[in-house]
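User: Teach me something about this protein's shape.
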Amino acid sequence: MRTLTVHLAERGYDIHIGRGLLATAGHFLPLVQGRSVVIVTNTTVGPLYLRTVRESLAGLGVRPLEVVLPDGEAFKNWQTLNRIFDALMEAHCERNTLLVALGGGVIGDMGGFAAACYQRGMPFMQLPTTLLAQVDSSVGGKTAINHPQGKNMIGAFYQPRAVLADIDTLNTLPDRELSAGFAEVIKYGLIRDEAFLTWLEANMAGLRGRDAGLLEEAVYRSCAHKAEIVAADEREQGERALLNLGHTFGHAIETGLGYGQWLHGEAVAVGMVMAARLSHRLGWLQETDVKRVEALLSAAGLPIRGPNLGAARYLELMRHDKKVEGGVLRFVLLESIGRATVCNVPEARAIHAAVEYS
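Assistant: First, the predicted structure itself:
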């Protein structure tokens, strides 16, 4: 097991990365002792791992309340969130009850948001079971649900007490979901670590082949970047915004097509191509750089061309993005491979060109 710490001003927490962590009760002990526990999971992950977590808690004399939600981005809404609140209320859960989010990004986001809201805040732990959740959404405290007009528009910053990333859970992940997670891994190389990007290029075949050692290294290096950025900018007032590379375009794809039609990582992958194209249009990236981005995403099994929503529709959807300031769209773009920046792009034609090419 390898451990990273997210150092925050008020309270830090650990990210544990390794194999067999869900079955190891000792890692729960500091948080579970003396508390009631509720596990929030979904209909896909529950049958795979709920028993393992339940048994690990039974060793501590804990019998958790279990809330099993429907699976999918389409259910990341108020109606599903209320099912968590209903269960907490019916069981008379108190403020010190520990909420354990067992699943991918949707479960982590909704479980964290429920924890932030219930009795104005209850402790929660992230047990991410997808690659995307392990390297991105489980770390950093962003919790949210979707709105029909925009992704993750209703939520809160609320940090977990710990994150346990069990690499073994990736063995049951469908190929498409595994590839979707690589989009967020590749993002770290593009925005701040070209050496990591080169490592991914050299090892993508092994990563897609589910080599446990390579996957653990990719998760560790990704989380190390995320932990460092979050520690420096917890509330996304500066550097943390760079983590949104490709997300403005990507969220437009997810919202425009309907939540769940494309996986988040697939939409982000195309969004990063669009951002690279826009960076090239502005004179920062060379065409060879853009081709390099496309080649790695393709090697990861990800799409590099977006749906034909039309440039006007993309712009309409992006105006609902959280990165709009003063009515002006702000994009995360690449000054070079491994160096990102946030900027306004006043030239609508450049945005149209980036969208239409993809």
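Now, about its shape. The longest helix spans residues 212-232. Residues 22 and 53 are 6 Å apart (CA to CA). If you'd like, I can walk through any region in more detail.
User: That's plenty for now, thanks!
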